């Protein structure tokens, strides 16, 4: 979960704003801003109910990176979070990427978005 992991220091942000982002047919499920620094740090997160193998997870993370480049925010750093029902095998990740189960993402949505 982005908020809890941020509080533990796993994701180096102070959560100041959250929301969904949409623009010209593109959407990011959750954008978390850390405006305590300038330029801000951001976390972008996508959720899927699918079971993802390593290649599918990599493809989804790459799509999330492409969408994040469209954000109207110049970020100091960006962390990419992918949530899925299940990850099969060991998906390759980069240092700025995190993987969550969908249960963790659901708890995140309730905590952050009040849903």
- What characteristic shape results from the CA principal axes? globular
DSSP E strands, number: 5
**Distance between the ends:** 15 Å
Helix content: 25-40%
Strand content: 35-45%
Order of helices and strands: HEEEHEEH
The neighbouring-strand order within the major sheet is: 1-2-3-4-5
Q: What would you say the CATH architecture is? A: 3-Layer(aba) Sandwich
- CATH names the topology as Trna Endonuclease, Chain: A, domain 1
CATH class: Alpha Beta
Poorly predicted tracts of residues: none
Structural class: alpha/beta
Tally of discrete structural domains: 1
How many helical elements? 3
What does this structure look like?
The protein is of the alpha/beta class and 115 residues long. The chain has a single domain, classed as 3-Layer(aba) Sandwich (Trna Endonuclease, Chain: A, domain 1). It has three helices and five strands; from the N terminus they run H-E-E-E-H-E-E-H. The chain has a five-stranded mixed beta sheet, sandwiched between helices.
Structural features:
single chain; 3 helices; 38% strand; alpha/beta; 5 strands; 30% helix; globular; five-stranded mixed sheet; 115 residues; Trna Endonuclease, Chain: A, domain 1
Fold blueprint:
Blueprint: H1 2-8, E1 17-23, E2 26-34, E3 41-52, H2 54-68, E4 77-87, E5 97-101, H3 102-113
Parallel strand pairs: 3-4, 4-5
Antiparallel strand pairs: 1-2, 2-3
Quick structural overview:
This protein has one domain: Trna Endonuclease, Chain: A, domain 1, CATH 3.40.1350.
């Amino acid at each position: 979960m982005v908020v809890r992991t941020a509080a533990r220091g796993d994701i180096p942000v102070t959560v100041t704003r959250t929301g969904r982002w949409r623009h010209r047919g593109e959407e990011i499920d959750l954008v978390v801003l850390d405006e305590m620094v300038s330029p801000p740090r951001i976390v972008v997160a996508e959720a899927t109910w699918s079971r993802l193998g390593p290649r599918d997870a990599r493809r989804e993370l790459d799509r999330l990176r492409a969408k994040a480049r469209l954000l109207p925010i110049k970020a100091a750093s960006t962390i990419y979070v992918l949530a899925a029902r299940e990850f099969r095998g060991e998906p390759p990740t980069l240092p700025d990427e995190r993987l969550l189960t969908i249960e963790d993402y659901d708890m995140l949505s309730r905590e952050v978005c009040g849903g």
